[in-house]
Fold these 4 entries.
Entry 1:
Amino acid sequence: MNRHATPRGFTLLELLVAVTITLLLAGLTLMVTTGTLNLWRRTQETFTAGTQAKLALDLIERDLQSAICRQEANGTVWLATDVINVPGTLAGNHGWKTVPLMKPATAESQRLVPDPVNGLEPGIADARFGLSGAWLRFIAATIESENERALPRAIAYQVARRPVSGSVAASNPAEVRYSLFRTAISSQTTFADGYNVATAYAAALTNPGTGDDALATNVVDFGVWLYVRDAAGALRRIYPAYNADRSHAATDALAPGDANRFPVVADVMVRILTDEGARILDAMERANGTITRPGNFGNDAEWWWAVVEANSRVYVRRVEVKGSAP
């Protein structure tokens, strides 16, 4: 027996088997790691969107619960909401940065009262509030700072599409995002100008300024449904009364017609994109178009909403409007 014989090396087949097993293990490890990272990212995005939605809905609830309506015969509008479907109006009056492709002003976005599914009454989560979402204005007795009493002031909520920082008109602005803004007029100005939110504050409550609160970013839709109680005490929706009902001006809690009734309950909805959805939408909406519309979509409106619904979540809250009681 030769004790000094050279040790036998690996055969080509053994090397191939070893490489194959190594590649399989590496692939499985990569799949597990990628899946874990994607799950973490989706969880983080859901948490972030949920946190933003809670903060926004909490503030809207506080304001609506402080809403004021007095019995007056002069037609004062104490609460108003409108859905604006004209891009030029948004750019000129509401401070939007508009581009050829953005949230569509078509029937794809106008679904204020969705068709019933299986005979069931649809909820506000199934609605779409036009190009601009709801522009909600009302008078509320709120406290804006620690050293202030609860005094009446005009408040507005609306979605605006604009850069996250810098000027709307800048030639090369920062990233453009849809955001939900809150505007609050001082109690002194409110007292001086009166309480008619349909006329006295048309300019002040229209275009959110740099000092106004951006409550949540990546908000692509915001809407409200308004209710009163019938003789039996059941809730009856007064706005929107039908799919094309884009405006409501509440003058009186006891107005004879629903078109002018002040609500006792409001359903509030916000639709918030995930971070990934915001990145996709930003690429779609750039003027130079870095993404081409897939051929399975017949038009840009259908494509826009398909991307949004696949990359967003809807948050809803029912709020009692306590100041509406006569």
Entry 2:
Amino acid sequence: MAVREDIAETAVAATPRFGGLTVPAWQRLITIAALLVALALPLFLKNFHVFQLTLVMIYSIAILGLNLLTGINGQFSLGHSAFYAIGAYTTAVLMDRFGVPYFLTLPAAGIVCLVAGFLFGLPALRLEGLYLALATFALAVATPQLLKLSIFEHWTGGVQGIVIIKPDAPFGLPLSQDRWLYYFTLAILVLMFAAAMRLVGSRTGRALKAIRDNPLAAKAMGVDTALYKSLAFGVSALYTGVAGSLGAIVVQFVAPDSFTFFLAVSFLVGLVVGGVGWIPGALIGGIFIMYIPNLAEQVSKGLAWAVYGVILILVIYVMPTGAAGFVRLVAGRLNRLMSSNR
């Protein structure tokens, strides 16, 4: 018995930890393999497909931001399309009006959205559940209309929006614009996911999850729930704002009607499909909201959204806890199979 305990302790000690999270060897292998595939894909695909994959990564970053707020901290939001719009317009205005290089607009968009999310989170502290959802719904509905106001038209371009120039690959690299932006977005994606994993595994992440699970107990243990909930809103908005900034650069155009409430619902759908509270699920959610509407349209152009609804119902029926639950189920069965063969 003591020998088994020693072996178990040695195995746990030998397993690498990232940001306080234990990372099994098979997960590291899958991550490395996925990165290698992601690096090689653009070399074999046409520019349009590379463009679509870039949008998948952008949506994944936005869903990851929503996951930090809803899945990790337990605050429900229907307004993340507003932060996506703020990030996109920050980049578009800086590039179009001031000639700021595109890569410098990303931190600017992130900081602006961090402040906006934190400030919105302060009054939202008095709201919970459906009331918080209603407040964020109002934010999502109001933002496109505010961007059309004449007092902001000089900066936002009004209903006409802003057209920006797609950047070329630097240093004379033999890459098309779409391929370069794919690799640029991939680098940002890896950085944002790594930061999210470190945050979730840190003391701050444990405090956020404690507030989600039992806010009264967390407060009794000395956690400043007001501060952490506001910070969760700010960090979540930062992620979504960076995604919006990348979206503006890749699509080359921003307009108020591009950031409707339906975009916020799409982020929520991606979160649920990927798995609430599961960080890698954001990638699966991004794939879903990018490709499933196109698939539904190929099935029937006249009934595209009806087909989309049927597909979504089937996915939720098969995976009631999203892709996260499905992965856990498969991993559990594999572990039992491997244990029985020993």
Entry 3:
Amino acid sequence: MDMQRIWILLGKEARLGATNFMGIYVLVMPVIISLLIALVFGDLLAQTPRLGVFDAGGNERFLQPLIDHPSMNTTVYNSDAALQADVTRGAAEVGLSLPVGFSEALESGSEDVEFTTYRWGEAGTRSLMLLESTLARALAEGSVGRGFEELPVSVNAEQLGSANTATWSQRLLPLILIMAIMLGGLFIPAFSLIEERQKRTLVAVTTTPTSLLDVYLSKALLGFLLSGIMSVIILLLNRAFAGQLGLLLVVIALGALMSSVIGIILGSVAKDMDTFMGIIKALGIVLYAPGILRIFPQAPEWIGRLFPTYYVMNPLLEVSQNGARFADIVVDIAVLAAIIAALLFILSRVIGHQQQQLALGG
């Protein structure tokens, strides 16, 4: 291994990658997708706020404006139990349980009247603001001649279901982060290696004092650097580059190393680009499953732990978003280190096999 040759080869790889369409594509796509999610999808994926109502009787005049409201969906339930069940599972984001004669008592203002509201733990801030402001306006309009401070109303508020108010940008961040780590670190070295083998330039290079190990290390180093840089960019774009900086960079480095080693291995075993893309399609679910599962909070976390990229994604999110320390993520780091060690062992066998083929003129 010669570090000077490796740096020379790295410079060549960087220049070729900068002018290669596929290289530009895999680097730019995570950034574009992240910006689209942050700027567009937050509103695009926002659903119409959902209100559920149980009327114990005699409150039609109060309810009708809520039912007719154009900016929300209102469902009337036959029982308080049915209303609570739907709020718990998210079919309704806010539930309103009205006692008998609530509307008349509100209009007369002769005595305080109580009612109960239920809030879904995962309801979005936008939906809650619209639903609660609409409800407050309906109460004010139903109580003739009174201001908000004088309303003869007592509210019993209950939260149902687990609390998770993550936005769509936050839910999709894990998937985008995995894409950033994998696309640059995996695709760039693999494409470069396959292209050199097809053009037989790999044979020409290894006939010089440059060894096959030097070539592989230069490609892996480029993938490592690109993967790390893209990870930092995605975290910065999503305002998630926080927590302990040193620990965050260590996790990014380990993820980038895993990604680049996988890229070199796949680039070595794939005969051509079509074969490589076929392998990537088959492995897609293995690579991206942890990020996809994070979109759905109800999905059990143990499923994500079955996939190797979870042990990159989870420590990054824990450190950047929850301020985790090394002791909090030591198990994930240990598993990630074991995965990398296994991949390096496989890579050493692959390099040995490739050297034998080159020696035989294959």
Entry 4:
Amino acid sequence: MDLSLVIPVYNEDESLPHLHKALRAALDGLGRTWEVVYVDDGSADKSIDVLERLAAEDPDHVGVVELRRNFGQTAAIAAGIDHAQGGVIVLLDADLQNDPADIPMMLGYIDQGYDVVSGWRKSRKDNFATRTLPSRIANGLISTVTGVHLHDYGCTLKAYRREVLTRFRLYGEMHRFIPVYAHAVGAKIIEVPVQHHERKYGKAKYGLERTLKVILDLVTVKFLLSYANKPIYLFGGTGIGLMILSVLTMIYLMLRRILVEIPVLTSPFFLMSVMFFILGFQSILMGLIAELLVRTYHESQRKPTYTVRRVLQRRESSDSAIPQNER
């Protein structure tokens, strides 16, 4: 299978027939084998009935994964990836705001050697105050913290080489950070403008509350990418900083005692100094424990600490196949 499309579905029964028609129009002439994996994420409308009909009408291209309840967009995407068979995986929403006509253009960049082609809704057709502005702020924050500079992390329309997506697992609400994870395993990323349309059917599933989730998820992503393999750098660095602050505070109290004869033990700064030293020591101990856990994690699963893009094998010489005792 050359291409798999993974589409999470939640209450999109009106959009689905039009979406599948647009997919056929965009993909049938490409000369590639393709499939679309619709993942029904516990829809409360007739989405699953529509998907069953599409699967019956187009069995060569349609697969349906029905989840038992609503697990969220990230879980639905993860389920779709697990059931997809294509060498290239394209993610897109089911609400018709992403345009399937952009997929051939994105596949062209994959053919040029890119591992991730990320869509950028340059002319976004959403409410500016509740959707576009918070998204721009979140995109700027994510780009600054992670060092992976994209204009539109929230655009679901993205194309990936399969091997990039299988390097990590998705949890929580982490689907928007897939390019960051991909970059961490050495993926070559490009961002391209894509079309964006106003929603014709149904209503948006997200609002301003999503911005807070993005910030919390960003903290998790930053920790996992920067300190997951060396947690002592975070905990130990924090501990050393607190202990230095404790020592400086104590030096200040001693100098004040010598110069102006103010007692050390009666000052609240003395208690702060002691507390900083204890917290710093505990933080270093936590870092050591985290180091042991990381090593246990990697060694128990035989999980490598590196990723390989490709291997160019040297050609064995003709006499290398001769047994040593016959040479």
